[in-house]
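Standup notes
- DV: blocked on the single-chain target, sequence here:
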Amino acid sequence: MYRNILVPVALDHDAASSALIDVANHLLEKGGKVTLLHVVEEIPGYVEVVLPKETHLNRIKETKRQLADLANEHTQGADTHIIVGHPSREILEYAGRLKADCIVAGSHKPGLQDYLIGSTAARIMRHAECAVHIHR
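- DV (later): unblocked, structure below
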């Protein structure tokens, strides 16, 4: 069905991330490619100044390991990438650079805060230039 699928994963939700990858594998055409993306939110400057410098580097290093483990466990040869920034904006920009033809994203049951500011999945769905599959 799709040849180039982007799967943004939140590593703090292992079961949901595994389910997203399973959906992507099911939607993937033979010979297609799955890319797993994790967005690490920036540490606010007022917090960063009091943290040891290696804290952020260790966080990225551990995130790379977790993402590689997830890819090895659920895919055959998926690319993995980590970006620092705002999740919905980075996911959409990366999908454009990747020329993804589908984004498989997770969502939670919407709460009041989502009606006021919107969830990451809702922003992806509204602004993506490719097909989007939302898995809840």
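- Follow-up: The chain has one domain: 2-135.
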